[in-house]
Amino acid sequence: VGIGAAVVDAIGSANDLNESINAAGVIFGDASDKILDFGETSATSIGTAQAAFNASVTPIGALLSNFGLATDDVAEKTLLLTQRAADLGSTLNIDTAVGLDKMRAGLAGESEPLRAFGVDVSVAALTVEALNMGLIEQGEKLDKTAKAQAAFSIIMRETEFAAGDFANTLDESLSNKMKVFTAEVEDAKAAVGDALLPVALELVDVFTDLIPLFQSVAEGLADGAAAAGPFIRALGEVAEAEKGLRESLQMLTGETEIFTFEEIRAAAALGITGAALRERREERSEEHTSELQSH
């Protein structure tokens, strides 16, 4: 059972990885190679398994793409934010995914999540940053592209204190070592599952083809049960009739002992009354006693 569960788990990991690769390809387009190449070593560089890395960067990439940034710029900024999130995770002892999610919120215009890192991405701060970057003129309102670029600039500058911390402390940080170990195990599991995935897909196809057969068998059983219904009901009626006749004979004869089915059926077939049945039983009992005495 343990091996079977491990195989299923490995196949699930491989499927998750393939799905994440497809998602990265859709979001990052022509620049997806940069993302996928980074993901191949993300276990050791940021302590995140490849599938988890792909899954965490696609929302960032989608957000930046919606802000109108060029594809290459989207991929580059996404990787910089991800590496910084890993460094913050190392410094503050939090998961990389948590840091990256706070950054995504900041890029989307939410100021509160990043306050935990001492980062201010309020509208006022974004406006000042955009003016300093030359993205807008004095009195001009921020558009979504300028907001995203200003937020990115503030995030990277105000988290500079953590830059490079993951790599710098890897040899001495148990937390970071465990992140790398866990990520490498997950990647290895996905690699094993990838080898088994074609077999699993073939089995799914086989069982899918067998579904009509299973349905036919189920319908046949249902039809058989329906056809057997009258017969089953008839047996029930016979049993009830025998029970009723037995009780009637007991009332007529005054006997408390139970008559056998053979006696009841014979009485019913011959139309013998309860009193006559009792007389015949007594006669057979006397004959049996005489035979025993003669021996």
Describe this structure in words.
The protein is mainly α and 295 residues long. Helices cover 79% and strands 0% of the residues. It contains 12 helices and no strands. Helix 1 packs antiparallel against helix 2, helix 1 packs parallel to helix 4 and helix 1 (2-28) packs across helix 10 (174-253). The two termini are 69 Å apart. Residues 252-257 and 268-274 have low confidence and may be disordered.
Summarize model confidence as the mean pLDDT: 80
Instruction: Please tell me how large the radius of gyration is.
Output: 41 Å
Low-pLDDT parts are: 252-257, 268-274
The tally of beta strands, per DSSP, is 0
The share of residues in extended strands comes to under 5%
- The helix fraction, in percent, is over 70%
Order of helices and strands: HHHHHHHHHHHH
Report on the biggest sheet: none
In DSSP terms (H or I, runs of 4 or more residues), the helix count works out at 12
Gap from first CA to last CA: 69 Å
General shape: elongated
Helix vs. strand class: mainly alpha
Pick out its properties.
mainly alpha; 295 residues; 0% strand
